[in-house]
Task: structure prediction
Amino acid sequence: MTSPDEHGAHHLVWGEIGDAHFPVLIGPSQIDRLGQLWDERLEGAAALLISDAAVAAYAGRARDVLVSRGIRVVDVVVPSGEGSKTLAELERICRIAAQNGIRRADAVVAVGGGVVGDLAGFVAASYQRGIRLVHLPTTLLAMVDSAVGGKTGVDLPEAKNYVGAIWQPEFVVMDTDSLATLPARELSCGFAEVIKYGLLNSYEMFAHVEAWPAPLDPAADGFVALIRDCVVHKLNVVGQDERETGLRASLNLGHTVGHGIEAAAGYGRYHHGEAISLGLLAALRVAHETIGAALEWRDRTLQILARHGLPTQLASDVSTAAILEAMQRDKKASASSFNMVFVQEPGAVLLRQDPPRDVVIAAIEELR
Ligand SMILES: NC(=O)c1ccc[n+]([C@@H]2O[C@H](COP(=O)([O-])OP(=O)(O)OC[C@H]3O[C@@H](n4cnc5c(N)ncnc54)[C@H](O)[C@@H]3O)[C@@H](O)[C@H]2O)c1
Ligand SMILES: [Zn+2]
Result:
C-alpha cells in the first residue's frame, strides 16, 4: 500500500475507499508533481482553485504549475479560519464557479488547512451534483486527518460540521514544504492528532511519537514517514468503514470530550488540536476507570502533549456542565450516550458507548 520512491524522502500511499482508488503523495517539493498527476487523472479539466488567504504564495505555486500546462484556473480565496465554513461561503463559491463556466468535467483544488478542505470538498460534492476534487493540504492536521477520509462539509450556527457529504478526491498532494510557514501553535495542534494515531495504532508507533523531539520541524528526517504512518492508519480504517458504522468511530478517540471543550469554551479559544489534547487525557482516564487500562498510558501521553506545548490543564472558567451539555449536542453522540473510544493500551482500541456519567465528570474535573 505504501512505497518510498527512489529518493526515500517521498512516499506514495494509495487510498482504497469504496469505489475510489486514489494516490496520496507525501514529501517535500511534491507540488511539482501536480501537473503530471493532473494529466494522468484529470486531463482536460479546468481547475476551481480554492485557497486560504494565509497560503496565497503556495496557492500561487499550484496555479503556476497548472497554468504552465495550459490548464484554465478559476481562483477563489476564502478568509482564514473556521468562520469560512458556512453555507453562505458555499453559495458564494458555487456562484463564482457558475459565473466562470466550471462544469461537471472540471475539478476543485483545495489549497489550505482543514477549513478549506472541508469547504472546498463540499463544493466539489455538491456543485452540479458533484465534480472531481484534489486536496493540497497545507496544515499538519489536514495532512494527517482531514484531507483523507472524504468527510466534507460546513458548520451551522447551531453546530459544527452539520451539513456535508462524503466525497473522495482524485488525488492528494501533501507537500511538506508548505508547512514551513505554518505557525508553531498549528503544528502542535496537528501533532495532537499524530499522538492520537500513536495510541490507536500500536505500541511501536506510540513509542516513536513519544520519542519525537520538540520543537517540531517539518523538514526533519522522518517527518514525512510519520505523516505517512498516520495517513496509512486513517486510510486503512476508512477503507473498512467509510460511513462510520463502526471502526471509523475509533478515529474519534479524544474527540467526545474534546469537542465538548471546544464548544463550551467558545470556538476559537481552544484550537481543535488543543481541545483534543485535553480530550485524550480525559478518554485515557475514563478507560482506566472503566476497563482498567493502565494509568501509564495517560501519564506518558500527558508528557508528550506537554512537551509539544499542548494544554494538559483546562481553564477554570469552562464549566463541566457546559462541556457535558456540548458533548450531548455533538452529532456523534446518540441520544443517551457519549459514544467514547477506549484504549486499553496503544493499539488495543474498544468502541464503548455510555461510560458512567460520574466517571466522565471526574475525568473532566481532573483536568483542572
Ligand atoms: N474532514 C475531516 O475529516 C476533518 C478532520 C479533522 C478536522 N476537520 C476540520 O478541519 C478544520 C481544522 O483544520 P486546520 O487545523 O487545518 O485549520 P485551518 O484550516 O483553519 O488552518 C489553521 C490556520 O492556519 C492557517 N494556515 C493554513 N495553512 C497554512 C500554512 N501552510 N502556513 C501558514 N498558515 C497556514 C489558516 O489560515 C488558519 O489560520 C476544522 O474545521 C475541522 O472541523 C475535518
Ligand atoms: Zn480531530
About this structure: DSSP finds 13 helices and twelve strands in the chain. The longest strand covers residues 20-27. The mean pLDDT is 94. Residues 145, 193, 255, 272, 276 surround zinc ion (ligand 2) (CB under 6 Å).
